[in-house]
Amino acid sequence: MIQIENLCKRYGKLQVLQQVSVTFNTGKVVSIIGPNGSGKTTLSKCILGMVLPDTGDIKLNGQSILKEHAYRSQIGYMPQIGRYPENMKIRQVFQMLQDMRPSVHPLDEDLLEQYKLPAMYDKHMGALSGGTKQKVSAALAFMFNPDILILDEPTAGLDPLSAEILKRKILLEKSKGKLILITSHIMSEIEEVADEVLCLVEGQVRFNETIQALKAQTQEDRLSRAVAKAMRLEEVL
Ligand SMILES: Nc1ncnc2c1ncn2[C@@H]1O[C@H](COP(=O)(O)OP(=O)(O)OP(=O)(O)O)[C@@H](O)[C@H]1O
C-alpha cells in the first residue's frame, strides 16, 4: 500500500503538485490521468525517489520512503522514454541489471520471451526502433518481480499485438496481488486494465474513483465520456 500525504512540489515559480493526498492499495491497477503537464510523471517520480517533494510524505506499507533507498527494489519502473547507453547491446543491458540485482530468483522472463528479445540480443540499443526500446523497458520493469509497478504511458509506440501482450501481463500481475500505477491518455486502454482512476489537474487531485463509481456518478457508460463529465468538460462534447 502507498499512502501519499499532502505532497507538494514546485519547480521555480511553477507549483507542479499541490497538497496531493491519495492511497493506492495492493491488488489494484490505478490509472493516473490528466492534461499534459498536470503532474502525473512528477508524482510517479516522487514515489520512485527520483524527485524529492518540497513538503508532504509518501509511505510504503506504513513506512516513510523519503530519504530511504532500499524500498526501490520493490518497484518496477517503465519510463515514458527509456534512455540507455547507445553502444550497449540488449544482452549487455539485461546482464548489467541482473548483475546489480543478484538476489532476485527466479527472474520473470515472460515479456522477454513474448517479445522475442533474445533473438535481438546482439543489436545495439542505439539501433533499436522506438517500439523495440519500449519492449526492453517493459521486460526490465517486470523482470525482478516487484510488488509495485509504475508504468508511464506503457503502450505508447507499441504495435497492437505488443500492446495486447503488455495489457495481459498487467492483468496477470494484478491477479497476483501487485499494485500497478499506469499513466495513460488512452481511455479505452484504461477501461480494459484499470480498477481506479486518479485525475490530476494543475497538480491537484480532481477526482480519485473506481471506474464503476465514476460511470455511475456521471451516468455515462463510456469511460471517456465519464471522465470528460467529471472534469466538467461535458459542455464541449
Ligand atoms: N525537472 C523539471 N524542471 C522544471 N520543470 C519541470 C521539471 N519536470 C517537470 N517540470 C514541469 O512540471 C510540470 C508537470 O510535468 P509532468 O511531467 O509531471 O506532467 P505530466 O502530467 O506527466 O505531463 P504529460 O501528460 O505531458 O506527460 C510541467 O509543466 C513540466 O514542464
Feature tags:
8 helices, six-stranded mixed β-sheet, 237 residues, Rossmann fold, alpha/beta, binds adenosine-5'-triphosphate
Describe this structure in words.
The protein is α/β, with parallel strands linked by helices and 237 residues long. It has a single domain, classed as Rossmann fold, CATH 3.40.50. It is built from 8 helices and 10 strands. The strands form 2 sheets. A 6-stranded mixed β-sheet has the order 6-7-8-3-9-10, with helices on both faces. It has a 4-stranded antiparallel β-sheet with strand order 2-1-4-5, with helices on one face. The radius of gyration is 18 Å and the shape is globular. Bound molecules: adenosine-5'-triphosphate. Residues 11, 14, 16, 34, 36-42 line the site of adenosine-5'-triphosphate.
Q: What is the percent of helical residues?
A: 25-40%
- What string gives the helices and strands in order? EEEHEEEHHHEHEHEEHH
Ends distance:
37 Å
Write out the CATH superfamily name.
P-loop containing nucleotide triphosphate hydrolases
Work out the count of structural domains: 1
Oligomerization status of the protein chains: single chain
Q: What's the pLDDT, averaged over the residues?
A: 93
Q: Say what the CATH topology is.
A: Rossmann fold
Q: Please give the count of helices.
A: 8
Strand % is 25-35%
Q: What structural category characterises the helix and strand content?
A: alpha/beta
Based on CA inertia axes, which overall geometry fits?
globular
Strand arrangement in the largest pleated sheet: 6-7-8-3-9-10
Tally of DSSP β-strands: 10
The Rg value, from CA coordinates, equals 18 Å
Give the bound compounds: adenosine-5'-triphosphate
Low-pLDDT runs of 5+ residues are none
